[in-house]
Specification:
Largest sheet: 5 strands, parallel
CATH topology: Alpha/beta knot
Structural class: alpha/beta
CATH class: Alpha Beta
Strand content: 15-25%
Number of strands: 5
Distance between the termini: 26 Å
Strand order of the largest sheet: 2-1-4-3-5
CATH superfamily: SPOUT methyltransferase, trefoil knot domain
Oligomer: single chain
Shape: globular
Order of helices and strands: EHEHEHEHEH
Radius of gyration: 15 Å
CATH architecture: 3-Layer(aba) Sandwich
């Protein structure tokens, strides 16, 4: 099974790349974590709707056909780390790839949200999108350590 993080944005600060890569490297082969960056829509002209539409089109086209899609969204359901670990157990058992969607500064477009089978909220707080990449990678790693009995998680 693969977990693909589709995230709008490129040229992240070094700490984002380092943090994400560190946790992604720790994931086992049977549960690989991959990042696919989606080019952001142009916002210089002030046409936010067009930028969202451009990102939405690129996001949906990057989703592999039979993957379960989970959108990161402020209106999603919050999960505890233990709930994520339980879901990960199910994911590993069925072997179906998972795709996590992280939108740009104005969120995900309607087609991306419609493609998602579930919506997940990391926090009621507004988090910077680069930080979300690192938090997601760390939480996926933490959930996997719960499943394997590794002492990383001390919940």
């Amino acid at each position: 099974m693969r977990i693909r993080l589709l995230a709008v944005g490129r040229r992240m600060p070094g700490w984002v790349t380092t943090g994400f890569d560190d946790y992604a490297r720790r994931m086992p082969r049977e549960c690989r974590l991959e990042l696919v960056e989606i080019a952001p829509g142009g916002r210089r002209s002030g046409d936010t709707a067009r930028a969202i539409a451009d990102e939405d089109k690129r996001m949906v086209s990057a989703i592999p056909g039979d993957s379960q899609v989970i959108a990161l969204s402020v209106d999603g359901k919050p999960w505890s780390t233990e709930q994520l670990a339980g879901d990960m157990r199910t994911w590993l058992a069925d072997g179906r790839d998972r795709v996590l969607l992280v939108g740009g500064p104005d969120g995900l477009g309607p087609d991306s949200l419609a493609r998602a089978e579930r919506r997940w909220s990391l926090s009621a707080l507004t988090l910077p999108h680069p930080l979300v990449r690192v938090v997601l990678a760390e939480q996926l790693y933490r959930a996997h350590t719960i499943l394997t009995g590794h002492p990383y998680h001390r919940g």
